[in-house]
Amino acid sequence: MGENTDLARRFEKHRPRLRAVAYRMLGSLGEAEDAVQEAWLRLSRAEPEEIRNLGGWLTTVVGRVCLNQLRDRTARREEPLHGEDGRVRLPDPVVSRVSGRDPEEEALFADEVGLALMIVLDTLAPAERLAFVLHDLFAVPFEDVAEVLGRTEASSRQLASRARRRVRAAAPAPNGDGDGDAARRGEVVAAFLAAARGGDLDALVAVLDPDVVARSDGGGLRPSVLRRGAATVASQAVVFARLAEAALPVLVNGTPGVVAVAEGRVISVMSFTVRGTRITSLDILTDPTRLAHLTPETLTT
Prior knowledge:
7-stranded mixed beta sheet, alpha+beta
């Protein structure tokens, strides 16, 4: 019993990192938790004294579990690639109060993995995604990445390089200048909110990039929408602002975002990608099923 308690305690120290790896691999908080739980089950059946590097062993297990899940998705074709069937699918957002995140959320988004990057990760092939996530986001050596993939180290490097090029092209750093100025991003989002609430189209267009992209995921029962261009996105923002009784500033995947509330319910979560002083993309989740766990009270207290 004592050995199991000690093993569980050691496992819990690695849980935040494992959850972060799994979320970046799968884009689903529920599936990420399942992958982490599977790692624990395998550890409980293993011979702990034979595991020299517990963190590395667990990361390898979670990586393989996630890789298998991604391959199963592709094989079943139950989830077409992003935009392949004309629908917009957003990863699960993690929404937290502006006043602060709990330790697990801090670990989950230590490197500010916003929804824009998660969307790009969804377009990668399973092996590419794993190579990029493990090496580029978690500094796992290519030797270990190769072991997870069952490929050579050189092949794993090529996969990560190919994924890196696609990520850089489709989801550049939010600020463009790489200065990590979260306060400035918050000011840009606040300016967007003020203009939307006031119905000021000119002010909205001024804060939007001319080629801004707005993606809205309404789930299975609501239409998904993809809009482009500052004027189009601005007009829709004004309409949506009028539908909401309140717009609460929050953190979405660790970056400034907004939750819209109507009739005491959260009706949307909006995430922003900001470069310089302009918003380059908006990702909006309106799926009531995936928003059901959010309440205005938990986001303001």
